[in-house]
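User: My collaborator sent over this chain with a note saying "see what the structure looks like." That's all I know about it. Can you take a look?
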Amino acid sequence: MNIGDKVAQRIMALTFERGITLNKLSTTCGVNQSTLNNIVSRTNNSPTIRTINDICEGLDITLVEFFDHEIFGIEQW
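Assistant: Without extra context I'll predict from the sequence alone. Here is the result:
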């Protein structure tokens, strides 16, 4: 799983936990819904840190909270 997959899964998990749609997240974070759709559908596998930060602000979490999750842990080689 690459970093784009992990970011997409984390966004989907956070929106699910909060009971919000990507449309609602788009409204609260100021990121175009098409950009969010591209990230979660993995069409965009390289979202910028600025975009992830905007998403975090819309979710009312920090970047540290976003990335401090087991999905981003070190993989076994």
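A starting point for your reply to your collaborator: The chain has one domain: 3-66.
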